[in-house]
């Protein structure tokens, strides 16, 4: 158990450091206030010349106290650790982090990508860096406001505030790009790349199709009990998950037996268990 806890803290620290690099190298120097407390701190840093990390910590302390009461001690400790690590990393690394380019589009894209990787790692190890993410969770618990809606509202406010403070609508538009990219990368880091596909198969010959998949592809098949919405007739639907490279082969196996089979293919971002990714707790 102690090993797992220390692994989580190490993961949160690494994620926070990567996020700090994205802010210091791409976003903060170029006034790209990509939402959240970091975006608000970026604006105040350029207006008042205060350290970004200290500003973020000052905003996060009251959020942490509320979160501790609402979410519980373990969540609160991980959040405090993540928020503190990010604030410390930003201010300690700022003097030594080079600014690679002044191009706003490049800064928005690369800041979003690297920041998304860092935040994704933090979330993957059960951490949080407080800010609007924590505020959104608290509002969800207390007022039943959806987390996504609360975060969007907070980010929108910060972006508008930054545009007014810097007198530049262009900077706000670039901040939107960075927020979008960050969200996509966070999901990718948490869920993994789309390397597997899930097949849902409706066939008049489910037994023969299932046997063929098991025999020819050495893949497991799950039989789901279904019912026709129009006819009300009971049916069997097959579920099978394969790697992307096996998609064509599975289609051939299915349609060789039943040329009229109804097949739905969806993306499975993360598949755990035998034949796929080993589960590590």
From TrEMBL:
Keywords from UniProt, A to Z, are: Cell membrane, Membrane, Transmembrane, Transmembrane helix
Protein topology in the membrane: Multi-pass membrane protein
Key word Protease present in the record? Answer: no
Q: Which InterPro entries match?
A: DUF2179, N-reg_PII/ATP_PRibTrfase_C, UPF0750_membrane, YitT
Q: Where is the DUF2179 domain?
A: 219-273
* CDD domains for the chain: YitT_C
Question: What Gene Ontology cellular-component terms does the record carry?
Answer: plasma membrane
TM segment ranges: 9-28, 48-68, 75-96, 108-125
UniProt entry tagged with the keyword Signal: no
Annotated compartments: Cell membrane
From the Swiss-Prot or TrEMBL record, give the protein name: DUF2179 domain-containing protein
């Amino acid at each position: 158990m102690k090993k797992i806890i220390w692994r989580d803290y190490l993961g949160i620290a690494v994620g926070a450091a990567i996020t700090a690099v994205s802010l210091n190298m791409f976003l903060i120097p170029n006034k790209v206030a990509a939402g959240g407390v970091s975006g608000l701190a970026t604006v105040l840093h350029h207006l008042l010349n205060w350290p970004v990390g200290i500003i973020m910590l000052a905003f996060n302390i009251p959020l942490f106290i509320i979160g501790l009461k609402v979410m519980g001690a373990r969540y609160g400790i991980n959040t405090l650790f993540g928020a503190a690590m990010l604030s410390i990393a930003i201010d300690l690394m700022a003097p030594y982090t080079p600014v690679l380019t002044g191009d706003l589009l490049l800064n928005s894209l690369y800041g979003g990508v690297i920041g998304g990787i860092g935040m994704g790692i933090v979330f993957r190890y059960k951490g949080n860096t407080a800010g609007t993410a924590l505020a959104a969770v608290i509002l969800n618990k207390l007022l039943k406001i959806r987390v996504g809606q609360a975060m969007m509202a907070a980010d929108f406010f910060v972006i508008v505030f930054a545009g007014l403070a810097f007198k530049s609508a262009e900077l706000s538009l670039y901040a939107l790009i960075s927020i979008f990219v960050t969200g996509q990368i966070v999901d990718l880091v948490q869920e993994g790349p789309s390397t597997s596909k899930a097949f849902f198969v409706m066939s008049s010959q489910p037994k023969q199709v299932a046997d063929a998949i098991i025999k020819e592809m050495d893949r497991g098949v799950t039989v789901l009990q279904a019912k026709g919405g129009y006819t009300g007739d009971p049916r069997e639907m097959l579920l099978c998950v394969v790697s992307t490279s096996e998609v064509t082969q599975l289609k051939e196996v299915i349609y060789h037996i039943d040329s009229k089979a109804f097949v739905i293919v969806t993306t499975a971002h993360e598949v755990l268990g035998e034949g796929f990714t080993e589960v590590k707790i």
